[in-house]
Design goal:
- The chain folds into two domains: 2-77 and 100-169, no CATH class; 188-340, Leucine-rich Repeat Variant.
- The protein has helices at residues 2-11, 28-37, 45-49, 51-54, 57-60, 101-119, 135-142, 188-192, 210-216, 223-229, 238-241, 269-273, 277-283, 293-308, 314-317, 326-340, and strands at 16-21, 66-73, 91-92, 124-127, 146-147, 153-154, 162-169, 232-234.
- It is an alpha+beta fold.
- This is Epoxyqueuosine reductase.
- InterPro entries: 4Fe4S_Fe-S-bd, 4Fe4S_Fe_S_CS, ARM-like, ARM-type_fold, QueG, QueG_DUF1730.
- One of its GO terms (molecular function) is epoxyqueuosine reductase activity.
Length: 341
């Protein structure tokens, strides 16, 4: 059964499939509690609200016996850091430049779930980043990879570029061996962070993380962190991109659904500043970027404009000072001040 399951997962576009028992990550709940107690989750209050369910698979579903962890590659075909020295162009995180991974991965998970029920009937549940599931500790417990010092999963075969999906099942499947930590003395990911978001190895303070600030955080971005954001307008890949294990990642193994759209490869910051809600919805339809809405993206673009040194962006910034969203208006005023100095 297990080998046929893995073959079916490969057929459906998953680069890796491993199995863990439901108790494969016994320390995950305690580590989560420590992280929450330190306030590292910022205003992601849902992390604390469902901490007991998130802490272990049986906290969410008492009948689960096995966890099938799957990874779908989105390894980039070009250097994710290539635009770092092109300040008038906006940088989108690699994972967001193609189709929305929630839709792609969940569709494939459901197909595997149907196949599994046909082979051996039993209750199951599928999850893709929208439920209180500790995907990364479970993935390590299943042997898919290990949590690196940047807290993300690292695979010996696929580097840092895997979307994770989980299937909880009441079947007692044969588990795979867990993966051990292969980071050693390397701390390249921590050193690469522009906003110093790692207070310790394996710990990320979301309140200083560019991905959190540009995606999850709804209010004004703290001024002390704005310069570090540079030209990033949605997420940040720096800690992932510098991982030495990425030398084993093969872009040819990536699911084609995640190939970057040409218009998101190197868009001009000025074009993003000019977006109204209708244009935003049209451009980012089917993209994970759509969930942050026009206002947050334009806020981020204003911060990037202020960091660009390009006085040509003063034109598209000025109308935003009277934007209906006060957060956008404040970011635009800050950017104008930066470019006018």
């Amino acid at each position: 059964m297990e080998q046929r399951l893995k073959a079916e997962a490969a057929r459906l576009g998953f680069a890796a499939c491993r199995i863990a028992p439901a108790d494969a990550a016994p320390q995950a709940g305690a580590r989560l509690r420590q992280w929450l107690d330190a306030g590292h989750h910022g205003d992601m209050l849902w992390m604390a609200d469902r901490a007991e369910q998130r802490g272990s698979p049986r906290g969410l579903w008492p009948d689960v016996r096995s966890v099938i962890m799957l990874g779908m590659s989105y390894a980039p075909g070009r250097d994710p850091l290539a635009l770092a020295q092109v300040p008038d162009r906006a940088r989108f995180s690699v994972y967001a430049q193609g189709k929305d991974y929630h839709d792609v991965v969940k569709k494939a998970l459901k197909a595997i779930a149907r196949w599994l029920v046909e082979q051996q009937p039993g209750a199951l549940k599928v999850f893709v980043d929208t439920a209180p599931v500790m995907e990364k500790p479970l993935a390590q417990g299943a042997g898919l990879g290990w949590q690196g010092k940047h807290s993300n999963l690292v695979s010996r075969d696929h580097g840092s570029w895997l979307f994770l999906g989980a299937i909880y099942t009441e079947l007692a499947l044969e588990p795979d061996a867990p993966e051990r930590d292969h980071c050693g003395s390397c701390s390249a990911c921590m050193a690469a962070c522009p906003t110093d978001a790692f207070p310790a190895p394996y710990v990320v303070d979301a309140r200083r993380c560019i991905s959190y600030l540009t995606i999850e955080h709804k209010g004004p971005i703290p001024e002390a962190l704005r310069a570090g954001i540079g030209n990033r307008v949605y997420g940040c890949d720096d800690c992932l991109a510098v991982c030495p294990w990425n030398k084993f990642a093969d872009a040819a193994a990536a699911n084609r659904a995640f190939l970057g759209r040409a218009e998101l490869a190197a868009p001009e910051i000025g074009d993003l500043l000019a977006l109204d809600d209708a244009a935003f919805r049209e451009i980012f339809s089917g993209s994970p970027i759509k969930r942050i809405g026009r206002n947050r993206l334009v806020r981020n673009a204003a911060i990037a404009a202020g960091n660009s040194g390009d006085r040509g962006l003063l034109g598209p910034l000025r109308p935003l000072v009277t934007d209906e969203d006060p957060v956008v208006a404040e970011a635009a005023a800050w950017a104008i001040g930066r470019l006018s100095d």
